[in-house]
Amino acid sequence: MTALLELTGLRKTFGGLVAIENVSAAVEVGAIHGLIGPNGAGKTTLFSIITGFYRPDAGSVVFDGSDVTGLSTAARARRGLVRTFQSNLLFAEQTALENVVYGALVSRPRHALDWLIERQDHRAAALHDARQTLDFCRIGDKAATRAVDLSHGQQRVLGIAVALAARPRLLLLDEPFTGMTAREKDSLVAMIREIRDRGTTIILVEHDMRAVMQLCDRITVLNFGKVIAEGSPDEVRRHPEVMAAYLGAA
Ligand SMILES: Nc1ncnc2c1ncn2[C@@H]1O[C@H](COP(=O)(O)OP(=O)(O)OP(=O)(O)O)[C@@H](O)[C@H]1O
């Protein structure tokens, strides 16, 4: 297997606090890779380093063979490294369809230009793609609904649809299951598998252990900013340090 993402020797401090210390990990092409750990373990900080929101104090982020450590979030997104947000950062007053179109345009500035100068063929193609993405995410019937009028679970799915519109090669999902009903969770588990099966590698930061264990091929466990375990769900579940970290946290 080849690594799509390689993290080497990452370190990030906030004042005197070491949030991430000497973190190395590799995410294989086609994997669903979990990133877990108790509260304050450093998951969000690591996520932000991978997406370019934070610059690490040391170490490197290599995406598809290129060092992207110094690149902006937008430059990474154009290369196919795309994230969703924990909160629903959507255009609340716009329809679901418009949100997905914006998701596609943000990652493809050339298309945005065509849109602005009203290239009708590009507009039609963008709308067609956005409709297909909403259908794929099982919210095609909500295309004309304003984002703000969707249920919480539907808004989270729309967030994923917006990210998918950017055609990610690596999709980072930030706690996508938060606040979902059991039924919505089951549907999202199936959807995430399908996204992977269509060729997108996935990193999943998630507190819902059932979803993590169901979905992930590999899991990296952080505690106090360090990697304490890495392996299959079964290996990680039985790892003494992981059990201790979660019991300690509980
Ligand atoms: N911007 C910041 N400024 C100062 N300290 C920070 C900042 N961001 C995170 N930290 C600290 O770094 C450590 C790791 O935090 P982080 O949010 O990455 O953990 P987490 O695993 O995502 O936690 P949670 O599961 O609660 O979201 C914590 O001690 C946190 O207080």
Plain-language structure description:
One of its GO terms (molecular function) is ATP binding. It comes from Hypericibacter adhaerens. Residues 5-249 form the ABC transporter domain. The protein has helices spanning 43-51, 73-79, 96-107, 109-116, 120-136, 152-165, 182-197, 209-215, 233-238, 240-249; strands at 3-14, 17-28, 32-36, 58-63, 66-67, 81-83, 170-174, 201-205, 218-223, 226-231. The protein has 250 residues and is of the alpha/beta class. The protein has two domains: 1-80 and 168-249, Rossmann fold, CATH 3.40.50; 90-166, no CATH class. The chain has a six-stranded mixed sheet, with helices on both faces. The protein has a four-stranded antiparallel sheet with strand order 2-1-4-5, with helices on one face. α7 links the parallel β7 and β8 (201-205). α3 crosses α4, α3 (96-107) crosses α5 (120-136) and α3 packs parallel to α6 (152-165). The longest helix is centred in the middle third of the chain and has 17 residues, at 120-136. It is globular, with a radius of gyration of 18 Å. The model has no long low-confidence stretch (mean pLDDT 90). The site of adenosine-5'-triphosphate (ATP) has 11 residues, from β2 and α1. Adenosine-5'-triphosphate binds at residues 14, 17, 19, 37, 39-45.
Concise synopsis of the structure shown:
With about 250 residues, the chain is an alpha/beta fold. About 40% of the residues lie in helices and about 25% in strands.
